[in-house]
Amino acid sequence: MRSRFFLFCSFLLFFFCGPLISGQTPMSGSNDDGSKGAIEHVLRTQQEAWNRHDLEGFMAGYWNSTQLTFFSGAKEHDGWQATMDRYRATYASPGHEMGKLEFSGLRIEMLGSDAAFVRGSWLLTMPDGKTPHGLFTLVFRKFPEGWKIVHDHTSVAE
Asked: Which of 22, 26, 117, 120 could disulfide-pair with 106, CB 3.0 to 4.6 Å?
């Protein structure tokens, strides 16, 4: 009986005091001050821009910096311009179609007040009926102008 009481007290001490020691309040992970909604808005705005065939509008969700990183197909593209060039060559050049983009299964995890990790799925419905799809992981940072993607790792299903 004494050992159960000790375990119970240890649990309570860890649960309530652990976050305080680390500088967090016990409920700090549940209140994101609207950041998750703002991040989802960036992604929905990108999706809408893509579906209007507005590549520049789509790219507005990315950090316009040489430090932006984009990983796809075992290749790394460094910088906003390299990412834009990749999208343009793959989807907006003659003989290529953008299709209709849909994001789903979004899971947004706040890493702090100015950083977030996002996971989800993407699906393109092409005019010829093909449906390329895959997964993505994104790192967002909050800048004075709003939330921007600073890292994108996108995979394509085989």
From this structure: 120
Pair (24, 94) in one structural domain: no
pLDDT digits (tens, 9 = 90+) for 109-153: 999 999 999 999 999 999 999 999 999 999 999 999 999 999 999
**Does residue 60 contact residue 49 with C-beta atoms inside 8 Å?**
yes
Output the CA–CA distances (angstroms, integers) from residue 31 to 3, 26, 35, 67, 141, in the order listed: 36, 11, 9, 30, 17
Q: Give the global pTM.
A: 0.79
Q: Which residues of 99-110 are buried (b: 16+ CB within 10 A; e: fewer)?
A: bebebeebebeb
43 and 22 fall within a common domain: no
Number of neighbours of residue 74 by Cβ within 10 angstroms: 6
Domain containing residue 97:
32-154
Residues 6+ apart with CB under 8 A from 18: none
Instruction: Convert the pLDDT of each residue in 50-86 to its tens digit.
Output: 999 999 999 999 999 999 999 998 899 999 999 999 9
